[in-house]
Specification:
Elements: H1 14-25, H2 28-40, H3 44-72, H4 76-86, H5 95-127, H6 134-146, H7 148-167, H8 170-199, H9 202-210, H10 219-232, H11 239-245, H12 253-281, H13 292-303, H14 307-341, H15 345-365, H16 380-407, H17 410-417, H18 421-446
Helix pairs in contact: 1-8, 1-11, 1-12, 1-14, 2-10, 2-12, 3-4, 3-9, 3-10, 3-11, 3-12, 3-16, 3-18, 4-5, 5-7, 5-14, 5-15, 5-16, 6-13, 7-8, 7-14, 7-15, 8-12, 8-14, 9-12, 10-18, 11-14, 12-13, 13-14, 14-15, 16-18
The chain binds tryptophan.
Length: about 450
């Protein structure tokens, strides 16, 4: 709870910060999106570029966003206002916080609908997929998308799960939930990996993901990898800034962010390897796209030994990952409402969840009743996805890089980031030059100039 005295909540220790922020980062992006993007973008070429983007652009920006939040010790808007003031810069830098709050709330609205599919499949998995063939599994997925009540029902259930956690507060809710869900998530990933090694085709998965094929690298692959590096690390949307604002002074931002990045990348790679090992062992196609874990994988679960158990574990894993990410999308707007307008935490969380839930209904209907409603040729789901992950996230990332690299005073940056000498110059140089250029390239691709 925020106290009127102005003392803000803080994570219990640096491990708690690492855990909750890894919880935000590790989500549908790692276990749903990363494997299917790897599958459709040619495997290893995408993986290698993705790794380069994570290290070269993602980690430096993760550090920058955490740094701004901790320096500001406030919700994203007020944090940006105070760091801008300290730097003698204009108040308009608050726009970074505003973009974050709006963007996070919009992402939450469609993230929750997709997480709802996962909850539906978790229940299906408990009944097992055995006896179902390719056509039947496709029908199950298209049947789910065509059913507004089922989509809205699961979307509502997922939103409720998040509301319950975030209402509990920073340590009593968010930290507590992550302390239970994240160890369970790590354990399930290891179990799946063990299964992949013991009973599936791990060598084929390793070949697919790591066999270097330079000719498969192309501009679209690079841009897809760069965009995904942003999404998977939860960058630019105020989530990292808000979590960073609950971090105590004196904790090493470099070290904690390094661990968070390693956890996020590690889970994506291990989940990808396990999924492809299972897919290849059953002679299935890796390039199914978004249906990879919803159509291809259940087909493997239907045929393989222990398929039912592995299927349930898998969808529980994805549900937990989605849950710990969604709660981080609620906190930026919540902290803003609580601190700026002195609204009680419960009411603030309820308001944020209600708005996202309401927009989410339109997202759910865009798969069926409203599928014809289009703007720029995109339905509501694609529109929100494009607006947030392809436009607002890179825009906020660019502004964060420019602010941290060029506007904030160097001694303040050094003090907060805790680096000196060559290590500082390397990080600072990356944030000043590499990140803005890379992000500009993503933009030019989005608006169709390149790519
Ligand atoms: N990183 C999460 C994932 O990989 C999604 C997510 C959570 C996110 N919080 C975010 C994305 C903030 C962008 C911004 O699924």
């Amino acid at each position: 709870m925020s106290s009127p005295s102005g003392a803000r909540a803080h994570w219990s220790n640096r491990w708690a910060f690492i855990l909750v922020t890894a919880g935000s980062a590790i989500g549908l992006g790692n276990i749903w999106k990363f494997p299917y993007m790897t599958g459709t973008n040619g495997g290893s070429a995408f993986v290698l570029i993705y790794l380069a983007c994570i290290i070269g652009i993602g980690l430096p920006l993760l550090m920058a966003e955490t740094m701004l939040g901790r320096r500001g010790q406030s919700n994203p808007v007020d944090a940006m206002r105070s760091v801008a003031e300290e730097a003698g810069a204009g108040r308009w830098w608050q726009v970074i916080g505003i973009i974050g709050i709006l963007g996070a709330s919009l992402i939450l609205s469609f993230y929750s609908v997709v997480a709802g599919w996962i909850l539906d499949y978790t229940v299906l998995a408990t009944q097992g997929f055995s006896g179902l063939g390719k056509a039947e599994l496709e029908n199950i997925f298209t049947g789910l998308l065509a059913d507004p009540w089922r989509l809205v029902g699961w979307h509502s259930a997922f939103m409720l799960l998040n509301l319950i956690v975030v209402i509990g507060g920073v340590t009593g809710g968010i930290e507590r939930a992550n302390k239970i869900l994240m160890p369970a998530l790590f354990a399930i990933v290891l179990l799946l990996l063990g299964y992949g090694i013991a009973a599936a085709d791990m060598p084929a998965a390793i070949r697919f993901m790591f066999h270097f094929e330079p000719q498969a690298i192309s501009a679209p692959v690079i841009l897809a990898a760069m965009g995904h590096a942003f999404f998977t690390l939860s960058l630019g949307m105020g989530a990292i800034m808000t979590y960073g604002s609950y971090l105590e002074r004196g904790t090493s931002i470099t070290r904690t962010c390094l661990y968070i990045m390693l956890a996020d990348t590690g889970i994506a790679l291990l989940a990808g390897l396990s999924i492809f090992a299972i897919v290849f062992a059953q002679g299935l196609e890796p390039a199914a796209g978004p249906g990879l874990i919803l159509q291809t994988l259940p087909l493997a679960f239907a045929q393989m030994p222990l398929g039912k158990l592995v299927g349930v574990l898998f969808f529980v894993l994805v549900s937990f990952a989605a849950w710990t990410s969604a709660i981080s999308l609620i906190e930026p707007a919540t902290s803003f409402l609580v601190e700026r307008f002195a609204i009680g935490r419960k009411a603030a969380v309820a308001a944020v969840c209600f708005v996202a839930w309401f927009i989410g209904i339109a997202v759910a209907l865009s798969f069926n009743l409203w599928s014809e409603i289009k703007l720029f040729g995109l339905n509501i789901f694609d529109l929100l996805d494009t607006l947030t992950t392809k436009m607002l996230m890179p825009l906020a990332g660019l502004l964060i890089a420019l602010f941290a690299g060029w506007v904030m005073k160097r001694p303040h940056v050094m003090e907060e980031i805790g680096l000196t000498g060559g290590a500082f110059r390397f990080w600072h140089g990356t944030v000043r030059y590499v990140s803005p250029v890379a992000i500009m390239l993503i933009f030019l691709n989005v608006i169709g100039v390149i790519g």
